[in-house]
Each structure stands twice: as structure tokens, then as C-alpha cells.
Amino acid sequence: MKLTKFTQMVALPALLGASSAFATSNDALLDLLVKKGVLTEAEATSVAEELKEENKGVTFSAKGKETVKVRFSGRLQGQYDSLGGEVDGENTPTTNHFYFRRLFFGVKANLDNGVYAESVFDVAGEEFAFEKAYFGYEFDPKLDVQFGFQKVPFGFEETSSSSKLPTIERSAANRFFADQIDFSARHTGIHAQGDLPAGFSYAVALVNGAQGEGSKLWGDAESDNALAYFGRVQWESNGLTFGVDAGSGSNSDDKVGGNDVVAFTGYVNYKLNGLDLLGEYFHGDLDEFGDVDGYALRASYRFGKFEPVVRFSHLEADDFDIDVDELIRRAPSDTDALASAMGAGNEIDSFYVGANYYLSKALTFMAGYEIAEAENDAGTEIDVDGFRARIQVLW
């Protein structure tokens, strides 16, 4: 056996043992501080979590004498969808397939000088894509600034990680702003957030108006010059969160015919033990297409490893055609839009009921049934219903 191989075999258990001993010594010290009255149980738990998070990752040598701590992560969501539809009483083809909803591979780096960076790649689609790519610096807990591609602060459910949502897909009201008109979700630009006194926090973003990874300028260099602005104010205490998000931008990729879009959302989220309640309201001014209003109500309760969940979502637009198969993801393509004349209102209701089983923090099984009904004043009716199931693995 070569010496280097022998050294590796001896060093690995030693490192693991040292890590374990370090963690044990930390726990013992925290227990002692609690007994002495220096820390409360809650404070000791918080410190232990911070130490645990800080010790994650592998440290490498970077340029010069600097070192960088790197942490790798991944998310795999294997999914099955079976959704049928009707347009004015006529059946449409049924979607029936297995696929990968998400295949994320991420890496986060922290440099000695305080600069950090994160990149998350999604290889589930037809093309290699960025889920997130940015670098930043925390000047103070009140000011943490990043430059790059990530979600803007608009929508509680939208900015919550899919790995933590109790429903398989986000609500129809949320998806209208994030997916049909490409208003919220991921944009490239300057992002900042921070904590304020008395439980308040904020987030702001100055970004490209057009969605996209921003690694290149699509088409002509001057074709997408519009910028967008987003802001958030939140208050949180004892599991209760109130927030208001707002945004304004010109939609230059013709999703809303080049019109300016101004929108806001207000929400309240309450968590107590296994209970999780969310209410979210949306309003958007689509310029010459009139207004759009919507809301989503969600309730889940986790007991042990099980979690039932229900959600109702409603969206109503003045002069803008609702794209049903965009709001109800993977619905049959024949349900794509409520073709209507100007002034013929569009609306959609969606009800979801499901159950989740958490085998561990890393492995979750989810299943749910969704029923959606859409109509307009011109007499068009579209129905979609079906079953979804997902297996999620995190690492």
C-alpha cells in the first residue's frame, strides 16, 4: 500500500473524530452556560444551530493566502402528473407522464474577506439553466447586498423554496405573476435585504425588467433596456408573519403587450407547532389590459411524519386572457387560454387537497388532487382536474 493511501485512510477517521469531539465539546460548553444562567435554553439552541451551520462545508485554499469554504447541495424532485380537461364540455387529451420536476445542483462559497457567492444549476429542463447565480457582501445585519440572478421579493409562496412548500405546485394566483406574465420570479440585477428593529425586515431589488439568467443579451443589445423595481416589508414575531411586497416594471418581451405592470401582494403566515396557515392577496395594474386580482388560502397540519394540506386559489382579470395551462402546470395544452373580447372578464378557481409523508428531512413523499374551473363573460368554460405525486430528495 502506498504511503499516501495509508495516510488518507488514517487521516479521514481522525478528522471525523476531531469533528465529533469538537461538536461534543461545544454541546458540553453550552450545557454548562445554561446551568450557570449565562444562556437560556432557547439561546443555547440558537447558538448550537449557528455553529452547526458554520461547520458545514469544506475549506480550500484560494488565490494567495486566502481560503474559501465551499458547501455543495442538491435537490431532486421526481414527479408524476395525470391531468384531464374540458373546453365547453368537450374532452381534451389527458397528460399522463413521469418526469423530473427539478434537478438542482448547487455550490455556495464563503471567502475569508466576507464575500460570498452561490450558484444553483437546473438540469431538469431541455436546456442547461441557472436557478440562481450571485455574489454578495453583508455590510451589517441591516444591509446585505448581492449582485446577480435570483428571485425578486414578490410573493410569499413564490419566494419560499419549493423544497419547503406543502403543496406540489404553487397557486394559480401566484403563477399568473411569476409564469404567465413573467413579472416576478428570477431577474438579474442588484438585490439587498436586512433586519430592522422590532421584528421588521426589508428587501429591495433593482433588476432587468425581463426575466432570464442574464448571462447574455438576447437578440439586439438594445432590445431589453427596461428596468424593474421591487420592494418588501415584513414583520415577524412568535410564528406570525405579515408582509407587503410591491413591484413596477415594463414588460418588454410582449407577455403583456409591452405595457407597464404595477402590482402588489399582501400576506399573512402563521405557524404553531405543526400548523401552517397562509393567506395571500394579489393586485396588478396591467395598463391598457386593466386590472387583475387574486388570492390564495392554504392550510396544513403536520403530526408526526404526516401532513394533510388544502388550498383554494382565485384569480380574476379584466381584459387579459388567462392562460389555464400556464396557471395549472402541465394541464392539457388545449386549455391554453380563455379567448375573449376586450371587456369580457376572465376568472379561474382552483382547489387542491393533498397529503405529505416526511420520511426524514432529506426524503419526502407528496400526493395531491387539483380541480380548476375557468370561465369568461363571453361564455367559454374550461375545466381541469387530476392527480400529482412527487418524491423529493435533498442533500
TrEMBL record:
Does Signal show up as a keyword for this record? yes
Signal peptide from the UniProt entry: 1-23
Question: Cross-referenced InterPro entries, in alphabetical order?
Answer: Porin_dom_sf, Porin_O/P
An example of a Pfam family matching this protein is Porin_O_P
Kindly state which keywords UniProt assigns to this record, in alphabetical order.
Answer: Signal
Q: What is the name of this protein?
A: Porin
| Originating species | Coraliomargarita sinensis
